[in-house]
Write a structure and sequence with these properties.
By secondary structure, this protein is an alpha/beta fold. It has two domains: 112 residues, Urease, subunit C, domain 1 (Roll), CATH 2.30.40.10; 305 residues, Alpha-Beta Barrel (TIM Barrel), CATH 3.20.20. The chain contains 13 helices and 19 strands. The strands form three sheets. Strands 8-9-10-11-12-13-14-15 form an eight-stranded parallel beta sheet. Helix 4 runs parallel beside helix 5.
Length: 445
Amino acid sequence: MARELVIKNAQSILTMNDARQELAGADIRLRDGVIAEIGHGLRVGGESVDARGCVVTPGLVNTHHHLFQTLTRAVPGGQDAMLFGWLKTLYPIWSLFGPEEMRTSALVGLAELALSGCSLSSDHLYLYPNGARLDDTIDAAQEIGLRFHATRGAMSIGESAGGLPPDALVENEAAILNDCIRVIDRHHDASEGAMLRIGVAPCSPFSVSRELMRDAAVLARDKGVMLHTHLAENEEDIAYSMAQFGCRPGQYAQELGWTGDDVWHAHCVKLDSAEIDLFARSMTGVAHCPCSNCRLGSGIAPVRAMRDSGVKVGLGVDGSASNDSGNLVVEARLAMLLQRVAGGADKMSAREALEIATRGGADVLGRRDCGRIEIGKRADIAIWDVSGVSSAGSWDPSAILLAGPMQVRDLFVEGKQIVRDGHITTIDLPRVIEHQNRLATALMS
């Protein structure tokens, strides 16, 4: 029997379809995980949700995260450091993690994302101490019920070989590639509407070899999965690339096969005009992480120039150790504000920032079946209550990034309700938070 639900009487539906239609007083029928019908006065044959006083959008999309880091928020010694110093503070703590820490941290991080309206998240897990595996975070995503794009990250060049991470956290490169094959073969679903996909994601140019970067690209393309890494995050990153490789990060990526429609890079704060043009021509995607870039003093990414050149851009919350939050609404608002700071008040509208947070991120992750409210697309829907104090007095309630709630009222993923009236439905969140805090206390001691 078909699983069906109708969202009724929405004050406004921001479809993010190709025409960017906005519908007033309309309904949406969700059937078997797909958007089946959009219109006014739709018949209700089963379950319904009243969306009066609400703005309805596609579920938001997170294109870069390190879910394991929700156990290490606001760590002393790293609170005021730039990227490399921050990493050196956190690496020894992360080396104490195991499967329980990875899974619990992911549960908390994914719940936080869901409450901010996120229906699809990627994750970049690049260290595997004490028996931890990518499967730990995959299990957490399946329990929460979010659509998930897990990437098998890696570090292979430790301090003794000129890299940044301690030797205890790096892996043998052959073992890395073998485990990439294992997780892809076990978990990757290439079909439309997939709830789980896998990517290949060596951590960064300063923690893996040229050979691993090249071999990872060959492996990913042989398996038909996407590629992800950090690139051009700050001036230290640029200086390292020039000193070690004799070229800028964009050229390094291009030489090793790391450009194309199947590649997305995190941060890209310091891309120059030639690199932006390269990414546009090659259809390479970018995960923009404004809060983390501010927190680490990395700078303001040239998102306006990227968008104007045709680069695919999505949003990422990055890890909660370099952001301290995992709220995609906050990221979208800050993305808008930073482009205005850099170039003027007309450089990014609230609706464009919301577009980047929805269909923009879906396109970066190769998920054109998501990020839009359109017949035939996946039933990933966020409902925002604009009847409260945060929107009071707003002349344009649909401009939720200017005056709107920071948390979602209801969230549907594949037509299933993950958030109801501001509460996670799939896990006992207070119990998980209590366990998370016990694990954090143990790490401190």
